[in-house]
Design brief:
By secondary structure, this protein is of the alpha/beta class. It is built from three helices and six strands, in the order αβββαβββα. Strands 1, 2, 3, 4, 5 and 6 form a six-stranded mixed β-sheet that branches.
Length: 188
């Protein structure tokens, strides 16, 4: 009986401490843009938002020294989330996004190149690092302007055994990158 109890406790201990890796969700962009506003009410046509990552579901990993690597994954369509979020932020910045491609003063294309979140539970400093890399192509008349954006972030979170704890950090990277793009567009 004693051995059965020890075996049950050992099983409970190991199963309860395993990393719970669930799909990481991304909330829709909440209308929170507070950057500069377009002075001359430019019209923008958001031509496309494409996710160029080879594996669109993997968004990071747990940095650990074991043979098996835990990867963070998400079932979100990041291209749709960016298109929706950019639409909201552009409206808040004073742009008109209801124009067709021919009548718009700026035609914008957004390409998601990389999304990476790295969690390290062995560090007492910043144990969560992330980066979103985007390429934005803006056509203004005959001019073509290509700009690369890298939204980086890092913070310390309490030791975690659940990938859902990373959702607020991913949302912060996401919303900050949208704000950065819209701020740059107000300067054109």
């Amino acid at each position: 009986m004693k051995y059965l109890f020890l075996m049950a406790m050992t099983l409970l201990l190991f199963s309860g401490c395993a990393y719970k890796n669930e799909a990481i969700a991304l909330d829709s962009y909440k209308a929170e843009y507070a950057g500069p506003v377009s002075k001359d009410k430019k019209t923008i046509y958001l031509r496309t938002v494409k996710d160029l990552r080879a594996n669109k579901s993997i968004i990071g990993y747990v940095d650990q020294k074991s043979a098996t690597q835990i990867k963070f994954y998400s079932n979100e369509n990041f291209a749709e989330k960016y298109a929706e979020g950019l639409g909201y932020a552009l409206n808040l910045a004073g742009f008109s996004i209801d124009a067709s491609k021919q009548e718009a003063s700026l035609v914008v294309e957004v390409y998601i190149k990389d999304i990476e979140i790295i969690y390290n539970d062995k560090n007492f400093d910043t144990n969560l690092n992330g980066e979103i890399e985007l390429e934005v192509i803006v056509r203004k008349g005959d001019d073509v302007i290509t700009q690369n954006f890298r939204q980086k972030g890092s913070k310390w979170i309490a030791p975690s055994n659940n990938s859902k704890d990373l959702e607020p950090f991913l949302y912060t990277l996401f919303s900050d990158s949208i704000d950065q793009i819209v701020t740059r567009l107000t300067r054109l």
